[in-house]
Structure formats: C-alpha cells, structure tokens
Design brief:
about 325 residues; alpha+beta; elongated
C-alpha cells in the first residue's frame, strides 16, 4: 500500500476506510467509534447546557479534524505495511465498496423510503404540539404506500396501497394537492363523507361541536417581528376521544367562521393546531381536501429542536 495514496484515501473517505485498506480492522473500528462520538458530542454538550453554540456546525467540523489526524496515521501505518500478511476480506477493494457505499446506500434509502423519514419543521402551523425547529421522524409504513411515497413513485404506483386508513386526530404528512412535491403536516379532522364547519373558532363535525377547555398555561414564543408573544391554549376533543392542544391567537380570526364543508370520498379534511396561523383545508383554493393517495406518512417521534437545542423523545399524539 502506497503511503500517499492511502493518506489521500483516508482524508477523502475517512480513516475507517484507510485502516480497512491497510488490513487494520481494530484500528478501523476505533476510528468508526471515534467518528460517531464526535458527531454526537456537540449535541450532548449543548443539550446539557454546558456550552451554547450551533451543534450542527461543530458536528460537521470535528470529524474533518479527525480525518486529518487519521490520514496522517494511515500514512505512517502504510510505511509499515507487511506484504507477507494475507489480506483479510475487508481489506479488498470490492469489500470496501460494498461496506461503505452499496450497503449504507441500500440501508439508508430503504429506511427513509419504507420505514421512517426525517423532517425538519420550518413553520409554526402545528404549534404547540410540533414547533418551529423540531426534527421529527415520520412513519412511512403507517398508511401503506402511494405514488408520492417515493421519488418517481408516480411512474409505477398509480394509486395508493392502503394498509390502514388515517384516523381522526392523526397528524399526517402529505403532498400538497396542487404541488405534491411540497410536503405539508396537519391534523386529520374530517373523514370521507363528514361535514366540517368552523363557528366562532370552534370545530363542528357532522353538526356536533367539538368541546374545548382552556389550558392553565399559555403558549409563549419569540416572534422575530413582534418580540415575545403569548397565545391562549385550549384542549380540543374529537368524537373518538382524541384530545390535543390548539392555539387561538385571535378571538375573531379570518377563518374562525366558515362555510360547511362536505368531505368527498377518498379525501380528508385537515387543520393546523395553530388555528389562526395555518394554511389548511379551510382554504379550498389552496390545500382544500387532501386526496388519500397524497398522504405519505404519519408523524412519529420528535428527537431534537434546533431552536431550544434540546434532545427529546416526544411521541406525537401521546
């Protein structure tokens, strides 16, 4: 193994690959564990409140430093490479390609497309339950798969293959009916065949008012334009017993009183929990009724918030 070639390989692809190329399995495992540790360390420090910085930027920098150190280490190791020692299976080029390119690509793509897909929340339409800066994983398998579940899915899936239908109160992710490449997240309120109407900020389903109860605490956040704001929080309960928090910022919001909507077959009526700051099914010329085939996932778990810089394990709906 040529020292400079090995060093460049380690610098570009990482010291794990460099050590495998040098027949050094234990050292490769060490660098793998060190890399994972350095990726997680900044988030742990910020979460614990020990220091305040952007963990994403630092987590991208520390492994680069490790790559430089590892490249120098690989250069030294290559000078002492023993040609008489048989190459182990992982030191051969085709094994490295499989371990670090084909296998991770297959696992990552399969996990993201079929099981859980990560999402970053850029807006507050689902506050106070899902907030700006949240990073969540959505369950891709929750409702089966359709033409918008995968890239280029419209080429081989003309309709959905439902395993389970969305329930009232579920928080779903779906492709915008007019632009399916744009993903929205809202709560299912109306099922196919239901009538839904807003009266004085209250939801009426099939003519029955959904009860609301004032919560003890208000929702506080920093608005970049207006500074700190406080919004009243209410507990809303659906006919199936699902209870969740909603925000009512304006007593007479623009969409607090609407016409009666009748949900077509194969469609769903969705609302944002931040009722006065959301674009949802009340706007028929925008989101309107969501077709079943546009629903791609159900919100699963929130793991991190980029604004508070705190870890969490918050299961949506619990």
């Amino acid at each position: 193994r040529k020292p400079w070639m090995t060093a460049i390989l380690a610098l570009v692809l990482g010291p794990v690959v460099g050590m495998l190329y040098l027949n050094q399995g234990r050292k490769a495992v060490f660098y793998l564990m060190a890399t994972l540790f350095l990726y997680g360390l900044p988030f742990a420090i910020v979460h614990a409140g020990l220091m305040d910085f952007d963990p994403v930027a630092v987590a991208g920098t520390l492994p680069l430093i490790l790559n430089i150190i590892g490249a120098a280490h690989c250069f030294v190791q290559a000078q002492n490479f023993k040609k008489e020692v048989p190459l182990r299976w992982y030191a051969r080029w085709h094994s490295i390609v499989f371990l670090f390119y084909l296998l991770p690509l297959f696992v990552a793509v399969g996990f993201r497309w079929v099981i859980y897909e990560p999402f970053h929340i850029p807006a507050g339409s689902m506050s106070p339950n899902i907030n700006i800066g949240d990073y969540l994983f959505a369950q891709k398998y929750a409702y089966g798969y359709g033409p918008y579940s995968f890239p280029l899915g419209t080429l081989f899936l003309k309709g959905s293959t439902p395993e389970k239908e969305p329930e009232r109160g579920d928080i779903i992710l779906f492709g915008h009916p007019q632009a399916p490449e744009i993903v929205y997240i809202k709560r299912v309120i109306g099922l196919p065949g239901d009538t839904v109407q807003m009266r004085n900020g209250k939801v009426f389903i099939n003519g029955t008012e959904m009860p609301q109860e004032k919560a003890n605490d208000d929702f506080r956040f920093i608005d970049p334009a207006e500074g700190e704001k406080t919004i009243p929080v209410y507990f809303e309960t659906l006919p199936n017993g699902r209870t969740y928090k909603v925000l009512d910022e304006h007593a007479e919001g623009v969409l607090d009183n609407t016409e009666m909507y009748r949900v077509p077959d194969g469609h769903y009526f969705v609302l944002g929990d931040n009722r006065d700051n959301t674009v949802d099914s009340r706007l028929l010329n925008d989101v309107g009724f969501v077709p079943r085939q546009n629903i791609t996932a159900r919100a699963g778990v929130i793991l991190w918030n980029g604004q508070t810089r705190k870890f969490s394990y918050k299961r949506i709906g619990e």
